[in-house]
């Protein structure tokens, strides 16, 4: 991990955590996440989602809700060949969320 100390995450990020996650309750971490400290480490942090009543694995506790968050995040990134920020593995969405997510997983 030493080579990564101080490295800023330079890609768009949507951070999802459960409010019952033990890590969320480490001293100072909740405040770091919610009060802007996390944004300093992750400059392109787009959104923080704190899911109530969820522990360490929100994707298992509420898979459909997490899938919606992921899909909406990808939609906001506007993956298309017209987006200069997109790379060569771009895709578009046809509105069918299940098939879209399956297609993205296959990429």
Automatic annotation (TrEMBL):
<protein>
    <submittedName>
        <fullName>BIFUNCTIONAL EPOXIDE HYDROLASE 2-LIKE</fullName>
    </submittedName>
</protein>
<dbReference type="InterPro" id="IPR029058">
    <property type="entry name" value="AB_hydrolase_fold"/>
</dbReference>
<comment type="similarity">
    <text>Belongs to the AB hydrolase superfamily. Epoxide hydrolase family.</text>
</comment>
<dbReference type="InterPro" id="IPR000639">
    <property type="entry name" value="Epox_hydrolase-like"/>
</dbReference>
<keyword id="KW-0378">Hydrolase</keyword>
<dbReference type="GO" id="GO:0016787">
    <property type="term" value="F:hydrolase activity"/>
</dbReference>
